[in-house]
Amino acid sequence: MSALKTLSRDLSWLRFNARVLQEAQSPDVPLLERLKFLAIFSSNLDEFFKVRVATLRRLTNLKKKTRAKLGDSPKRQLREVLVEVSRQQEEFGATFREQLLPELNRHHIHLLNEADLTDQQRAWTTRYFEEKVRDLLSPVALDDTLHHLFLKDQAVYLTFFLSQPREAQAGAHAERVLVMELPTKRHGGRFVRLPDEGEERYVLFLDDVIRVGAPALFPAYERVEVNAIKLSRDAELDIEEEVSGDLMEKIRSSLAKRATGFPARLLYDPRMPKETLRAIKQKTGITDDALVEGSRYHNFRDFFGFPHFDEPSFHYPARPALPHPTLPRTGSLLAAIGQRDHLLHPPYQSFDYVTRLLREAAADPRVSAISITLYRVASKSAVVKALMKAARHGKQVTVVVELKARFDEESNLFWADKLQRAGAHVIFTPPELKVHSKLLLIARREADETTRQYAYFSTGNFNESTSQLYTDHGLFTAHEGLTREAAAVFGYLRDQQAVPQLELLLVAPFGLRTGLNALIDYEIKQAKKGKEAYIILKMNALEDRGMIAKLYHASEAGVRIELIVRGIGCLVPGQAGYSENISQRGLVDRYLEHSRVYVFAHGGEEKVFVSSADWMTRNLDRRVEVAFPILDAGLRAEVRYLLDLQRQDNVKARDFENCFVLPEEGKKPVQAQVATYAWLKGMKRRARAAAQPAAVAKRGPVSKKKG
């Protein structure tokens, strides 16, 4: 296993973020959406530094013998990561300056800095500063009276270097350095719209409004230089290493420490005076290895709040969520689910069917119990409100709340408290186990007085907000075997003792890895017999070395393998001798590809699983994940058809090297997300007994092409 050829997890993730940057560079993407991709790239990189780079830095501080057990040098990995980050940062800056700013100008939108202002605009900005901004500012002097400067995580700060005191100002220091947090939230955003001039529109960073007003803040000095810095702190909670004590208190304690975690990165303007940077380092204790050259502006994620302009060409065309072809728009969803299985495909179809189901269950006097897993929920969660209502109506409501969902711990604590107060039974998982599965189970007493169970299995969170941005698959079912096994999973989560005996579901941490290995082994046997053998896998991340080795073994045996990996992909495809039968692509488009689908030829009786789990060690061994089979033939063909659209994408697909997959000669362009919406929009309500998509056939891999 030590000789296993893989790509570094962190370098692979940086390749993914490079694909995000490609969308910002693409002229086919609407102009203001390109700015949003810059914001996504910046936000992603912030989290990467807070988590992954911070982890690598911690590992470099381990004792030499301990580091040796890791199998790779953290120092070398960190060095490689920082080199690639620096390259991407340069490309990011060039994309903004050389592509997007000129394109905005061509469309009569001008993002100015203080040097670009006309006399009239400068006068307007000066008045705006005095009336709207000045009272929000509170600079702190970095002098002998200040022993330590604490910088908040992810906040932009402006530094002021004052020099050349005016002779009339007695007692002024020759030089001074001051720091101030940029008051973005109190101001109501990062950008200021200046008055239009005809068809020309003008926008100014709040930073530059302050630069215009800075001389009035410090009248004792002739020269005032304003620059920006931003600190990212270590965000790892290390909860998995804790095995004793009260978990909730540990989470609360770790959240408090997160804001004061050690610095992972200090971004600074390279034009900053050396005196300013020296003072920042002295007062914060930040070392040179945490310094990263940035640009004039930081926190490009604030471009999510760039002023809105109504031109349709600036934005993606509207795609209203589609009604479901087999679920009723009004009336009982439980009754419809009781008659047959249904697949839901957010964001193409409305997530409201899930919240409607919960509201119906809360109000139905025959529903006795509701069980659900919550990993990330919306800030104003209709899901949680329905659960609280059900609890108040006397239902037995069991909620498994994951307190270790990174960056959502505080929100989950808030909702857990609300649920407990409403009378729900809230289960917190042990520190060593994270519940990432997305399960809902409803128990109802039927007319014949028997109890029937209804389930919803999903690849996506019970979150109304992300359901509009992430592509997912969800299965509504009353299938007796699936609901019985879902109940067994909830029993395991409740008791955390006996491992459930399952035949249909593949559940981590006790059955998913072994189940996947068995399915791959079957394909290997088929290939060795000279029979058709293939595997198609769609996921966010493929990192686990054991599963990569298994796929290499399958490739060597002649199994054709297609990978659609959005993010981290450590397997190296298309290499003679061990992966020549493996191809890989990834999609980055308007929506975040979030569904996981596993397809196995299985001797002509194709098996299709949909799952919450990526193939990462943490998902397979340290999380509760569920892969559920699509048993209904029509729905299985539906999943395959949508998967085939992604396999045929030649507009937004990239290969392993991040090169776009281009249409072959004579082939029409296929953009999977556009085609998916069109196909789902065209689905007519079909007879439940014959719900089979037209022109959908069982397919193996579309190509034997290497790479």
UniProtKB/TrEMBL annotation:
Catalysed reaction, written as an equation: [phosphate](n) + ATP = [phosphate](n+1) + ADP
Bilayer-spanning residue ranges: none
Keywords tagged on the record: ATP-binding, Kinase, Magnesium, Metal-binding, Nucleotide-binding, Phosphoprotein, Transferase
One GO BP: polyphosphate biosynthetic process
Polyphosphate kinase C-terminal domain location: 333-497, 505-658
Domain Polyphosphate kinase middle: 120-306
Binding site for ATP: 44, 470, 566, 594
Active site: 436
Cited InterPro entries: PP_kinase, PP_kinase_C_1, PP_kinase_middle, PP_kinase_middle_dom_sf, PPK_C_dom2, PPK_N_dom, PPK_N_dom_sf
Record has Phosphoprotein as a keyword: yes
One Pfam family of this chain: PP_kinase_C
Binding site for Mg(2+): 376, 406
EC number: 2.7.4.1
Boundaries of every Polyphosphate kinase N-terminal domain copy: 7-111
Keyword Metal-binding part of the UniProt annotation: yes
Cofactor list: Mg(2+)
EC supergroup of this enzyme: transferase
Recorded superkingdom: Bacteria
HAMAP family linked to this entry: Polyphosphate_kinase (MF_00347)
Known role: Catalyzes the reversible transfer of the terminal phosphate of ATP to form a long-chain polyphosphate (polyP).
Family to which the UniProt record says this protein belongs: Belongs to the polyphosphate kinase 1 (PPK1) family.
Protein name: Polyphosphate kinase
Taxonomic source organism: Hymenobacter sedentarius
